[in-house]
Amino acid sequence: MATIRKLRDKWQAMVRRKGIAPRSKSFDKKADAEKWARDLEAQVDVAGYVPDSKLAENTTLGEILTRYRREITPTKRSAKTEAIRINAMLRRDVCHRTLALLSSADIAAYRDERLQTVAPATIIRELNTISHALDIAQREWGIHLVRNPAKLVRRPSAPKGRTRRLEGDEEVKLLAAADKGRNPWMKPLIILAVETGMRRGEILGLRWEHVDLERRIVHLPITKNGDSRDVPLSTRAMETLTGLMQQPNRDAERVLPVSADAVRLAWEHLRQRAGVGDLHIHDLRHEAVSRLFEKGLDIMEVSTISGHKTLTMLKRYTHLRAEDLVARLG
Q: Which segments of 142-296 are extended strands (E)?
């Protein structure tokens, strides 16, 4: 039986069971002390042990996210982006909640508040980060939670994938604008993106040691999904890389020695000069993958080039023009 006793202005409940360290907790009301003791004894009867909730009672969500940022985030390829995301999340009121008090209602309120200012895709990533941090806290950091409240919260609907492709003479306009721009790396970047389907980060990370012009492939040792892959080169891509290799002042290691921030700024100016204001640089990957299908390559061939692991993922980047398929129907 539990012991309930009055200590000054508090009621203390103590549960003792053979083979288990005594547990106690103080409450303002006697009824609350009795309820806590009953619940704890019930858990012992079912599970045979008393889960230690002290850490959950003394640890906030913010402290868990801070530890997650320090220990887990650096192991990810998206470490920089996730660290920035967590830094922003730590400024929110929900991070002051202790894990013992954190509820799905708290996280749902956080979701609804954030939806007023950021896109659903951002909310989904933030909720997934919270959920994974709580899972790690349970499995590896010895913090007892009855359940992960983030898993009970409904995610907002993700927006449909973009269907934007190059239309008419937009590619010609882009390349002409790149010729007139101050960043000499934008034109080869655009051509390689359209011809190979590589991501911007993959192109910017490309090193000469991974370019094999004899075999007409480039090797990507590390990609977004964690796998390496070889990308075949079209004649146009070969001409572009050959031209870069023959430049007298070329960088000894990197094919395009330019930062992601420089590319982002140059792209904003470039698309305005070209008159394609709604075109994103990632849309060039959509264009490349769609062209591969229009050339007659099958799903396995395209996924080998693009690096997509599933048909669902591949379909998000594939938008075929009906008029280009008419000739193949006969």
A: 211-212, 217-220, 229-232
Query: If DSSP codes are grouped into helix, strand and coil, which group holds residue 305?
Result: helix
For strands 211-212 and 229-232, give the pairing. Answer: unpaired
pLDDT tens per residue, range 100-156: 889 999 999 999 999 999 989 899 999 999 999 999 999 999 888 888 999 999 999
CATH code that applies to domain 58-152:
1.10.150
Query: Is 224 among the residues known to form the active site?
Result: yes
CB distance 37 to 29 below 8 Å: no
Give the CA count within 13 Å in the CB-facing half-sphere of 185.
20
147 catalytic per annotation: no
CATH of domain 170-329: 1.10.443.10
Q: Provide the 3-class DSSP secondary structure of residue 204.
A: helix
Q: Residue 199 catalytic?
A: yes
Locate 125 and state its tokens.
């990533």
Q: Which of 6, 282, 295, 321 is catalytic?
A: 282
Domain locations along the chain: 3-51, 58-152, 170-329
